[in-house]
Amino acid sequence: MNHADRPPHNRDASGVTRKPPGRTDKPAQGNTETADNARRIARIRREISADGDRWRERFPILANQNLIGLGIFVIAVAGVGVSGFAYIEGHIGWYICIPLVAFFTSLLHELEHDLIHWQYFRQHKFLHHSMLLVGWVLRPGTINPWIRRRLHFQHHKLSGTEKDMEERGIGNGQQFGALRLLTMLDTFTGNLVNVWMKAPGAHRLRLSLRIVAANFPFAVLCAITWYGFLMFHGMDAMTTWLGIPIAWSEGTLALVSGASPWIVILIAPFYLRSFCLNFISSNMHYFGDVDSLMKQTQVLNHWILWPFQLFCFNFGSTHGIHHFVVREPFYIRQLTARTAHRVMREEGVRFNDLGTFSRANRFTALAVGAEHPVAREV
């Protein structure tokens, strides 16, 4: 295995030549960078990229991007398999299996994100697409990754706008309430409910079919199994408590019994991980009044959020780095985070702006009776 497939250091994940230090990329559509913002962005990119190169020079193995990506993939898949086997054999309880699988599949999510940017096996399509497929199967509630690729590239171009369907689809820009919580837990079901509650009547069926098609077959089967499982146990518990237990048929009991291991090994871990990731992601991205790369994201690494970060591989702390330097794989972002955070803070990127929760993720909000926007950072 060698690193021949890794894009050269002066290219981004799509193979586009990275501009030399001192120049900035073209702003995202709808973003109008001022000269000062352009300078800030150029410095952030320059220092993050330089630190990534220093890490590669210090540890040459880091240049073997395909090897590292495949190694992490094998560890994550094996982790899911061993955890599931241990649960089935009775060596661990469901309360151990679920968080273990959620952690290992958080690695698969990060790998999928890197694969979407063509970070691994760019020249070996079979391996590339096989990794995408296996990651999809083991995270059964997720959208088709090949469809997500198109939405994710759109996210980078249109971040913070109504057309950023990837972030809008996980709740970004919505006021907190039952519907946003459902969307963060289960994007497939939450977006269907959103469509039927908010879309014009003439478009509901068409939009619903598009959501189903983008999530078929795994997320559809995942949702049916999950809500059927919850309904069965909810009805069984309630009727037993009322003293009128339901006499379930043998077929129904066999169906629930057969579904139970899949619930513990794949489906419940998916919902745990999905909620943690979507909670962090939808709140670290800004929405609505975003007119610059400097306003697209914040660094969300407050200590109270660590239970969420555990199941999305420190996403809130490192994903903002990706918006500035797209080419780096997720494990390099972990290594460069200290340098990145220093320069991002110096250049005005927000850290732990917890006010975003009450502002529906707007970058600014007007105080009552005030003319100037206010925001709160911790």
pLDDT below 50 for ≥5 consecutive residues: which ranges? 1-30, 366-378
Question: What is the element string, with H for helices and E for strands?
Answer: HHHHHHHHHHHHHHEE
Count of alpha/pi helices: 14
Q: What's the number of extended β-strand segments?
A: 2
Q: Major sheet, described briefly?
A: 2 strands, antiparallel
Distance between the termini: 45 Å
How much of the sequence lies in strands comes to under 5%
Mean pLDDT: 91
Question: Which descriptor suits the 3D outline?
Answer: globular
Using the CA coordinates, give the radius of gyration: 22 Å
Structural description of this entry:
The structure is a single chain. By secondary structure, this protein is mainly alpha-helical. Helices cover 60% and strands 1% of the residues. It has a two-stranded antiparallel sheet. Strand 1 (365-366) and strand 2 (373-374) form a beta hairpin. Helix 2 (65-88) runs antiparallel to helix 3, helix 2 (65-88) packs antiparallel against helix 11 (250-284) and helix 8 (187-198) runs antiparallel to helix 9 (201-215). It is globular. The termini are far apart.
